Structure formats: structure tokens, C-alpha cells
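Case study 2.
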Amino acid sequence: MLLSLVKASTDDRGDRRLAREAEWLRELAAEPTLEGQLPRVLEEGWRDGHRYLVLSLAQAARQETRAFTTDHARFLATLGKARFRALDFEASGCCRWLHREIESLRGRVSEETAGQLQGAYHDCESALLYWTGPYVLSQGDFAPWNIRTLGAQLFVYEWGQAHAEASPLDDVLHYLMVQRALRRRAPGVRFLRTAMRRAHAFAVQAYPEWTWRARVIGALTLVYLLGAVLHHARGSGSCAGSAYWRLLESRADWMPE
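Prediction:
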């Protein structure tokens, strides 16, 4: 018996998210290396003025795991190679998105906050100025609650935030950081450094042909934090106050020289 999930939107934002999810799932269905690890689009359409999706589910999937395992690393490496571009940072989609989101906040946040955002963006540009590297497809919400295990494979749900030309460290850092960020004990500098070491090990294994200096890892970690802050601001209208914002402010304490 085929298991399925019905997802229905109630507003315009949800419509766009379901449309993006369906588009990526249809596109990735043609990737043989990802076969059986993603939902399939069984049906889609409109009901009561909003979009709905019917997606397949994995029948033999077991419970989620909180650890970042070799299976998680293998899945992200495979996903990254499915939509891969070697680019300078300033030519990448993630750079353009960061710049656009920061500009959109001008006049809506304090001058101090705007200056902090622009300063973090400048630090990303400076640290990655002479580095060309892989920019990849990101799942967008790679977290334990969106993943189930299928033997040595993963089955990954929720593709509404997927996007191309992302930093290759985004999904790894998100998996590690978001679990801590949602607890009462927010991630600090020490925890971030541990996450950076794990992301560094992933990058070396998944993309061995590239140079992964400490400065590059630090800059791509800042790219992730800045993106997380801007996503939060898009939904709430505020940047400051979150654990990620505090790490962004204290970047002199953890970013390699």
C-alpha cells in the first residue's frame, strides 16, 4: 500500500512554498543517485483558491536521529553534486541573495543593525575574495525532524526552502546549530567552533579537490549565520536578539584571521 501525505496551503506565502517544493521534487526525481530518498509528487492542484500537494512517503523509514552521521554526510555530498557550480563568492546566488535581503531592510531596521549586517557581509566578501569553490543545492531545512533513516540511506522531507548556489556548508551547519538554537541553552562560540570543525571535515571529504583553509570555513560559517538572521528578519521584521545574531556580532571571537 502506497503511503502519502497531503499538504495544503492557506495563504500566498504557502502557495509559493508548495510550488517551489513541487518544482524541486520533480526536477530531482530525474537524479538516479537520489532515487528512493525523496518524496515523489503524486498529485498537485488548487483547492479553495490555494495550492495543495500529494506526496509519497517512505514505507520502511525508521525514527529520526539527532546525530550527524556518515549517512547524512553522504546524502548531502550526493545532493551537492546534483546541482553544482564552481564560482567566486561574488558571482554566487547566495551572495546576491544576501546583498538583496540586506538592501531590502534599509529603513526598516536601525542604523546600528544595518551597519552590523553590512559589516558581516563585507567580512564574507573579504575572506572569500580569492577563493573559488563549489556552490550547491541546499535542502534549506536539513534538520532531524525532516529526515528518516532507510537502512544506510536517508529519506528527506520538506523541500519548500530548497535553493541552488548555496554554500556547501549551509545544510551541515543548520543540522548541527538548529537543534541547539531551539533549546533553552543557545549555541555559543564554543559550540559554534565544534560545528565548524564538523563542517570542515565534511567539506574535505565531500569536495577534496578544493582548498578548505580555516579562513574559508570561517567565512562560509558567517555566510550561514547571516543568512539565518536575514531569514528570521523576513518573517519577524527583526534581526537582533537571536542566538545567531549574537554570534554574528561576536564574530571577532571565532572567525580565523
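The mean pLDDT is 92.
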